[in-house]
Amino acid sequence: MRGKWAAGIPPRNFTWVIKDRLALSERPGGFAPNHRKVRRQEEIVWLQVQGFTHVISLLPSAHNLKAYEEHDLPSTQFALPPSGDTRAVLAELFEDIHRRLQAGERVLIHQEEMGDRVAGVAAGYLCWSGRLPGGPQATMVLERMTGHPMGPAGRELVATAGQLPSRPDATGA
After folding, report:
1. What is the dihedral of CA 100, 90, 137, 149, to 10 degrees?
2. Burial of 105 per CB tally in 10 Å (0-12, 13-18, 19+)
């Protein structure tokens, strides 16, 4: 790649949750009917240029994982079920995010589109990690960051996060 595209383009709806450490976006390349391979490549290049060390996909499918591998961008999939009990996935996901941030990594979390569930995961992590004191505060912060009110699906994830055991101490990453 040459010229202005050598630095890539940011994924749509890119939002920092923890400045220079943890970010959210829609799936690089766009969501299902609008997904474009060239755009995905440009967005992965941008993530690499920006120093991202890991991508976490919340998709139930393996979409994009091969593309990350081809670009030497480590990734992990935490298939967040669309309904039902999410406690086990959230507990494992929050531990993984926490370890990565403690190690100084720069992490992007995405799902198909930037919606309630991605925002709910981020707000839930902020509560679980002790960075924010509770669900209402975390919900309000994520609503301001994303510019959208959080609906029931996101709020349910925040509530579930508040019920999880084994929170790390509040020293943060």
Report:
1. 110
2. middle
The CATH superfamily holding the domain 8-122 is Protein tyrosine phosphatase superfamily (3.90.190.10)
Give me 123's structure tokens: 């707000």
Residue matched to tokens 């991202």: 52
Q: Could you read off the pLDDT of 17-73 as tens digits, one per residue?
A: 999 999 999 999 887 766 788 899 999 999 999 999 999 999 998 889 999 999 999
pLDDT per residue as tens digits for the range 109-143: 999 999 999 999 999 999 999 999 999 999 999 99
Q: Is 135 exposed, middle or buried (0-12, 13-18, 19+ CB in 10 A)?
A: buried
Q: What is the C-alpha to C-alpha distance for residues 86 and 89, in angstroms, rounded to an integer?
A: 6
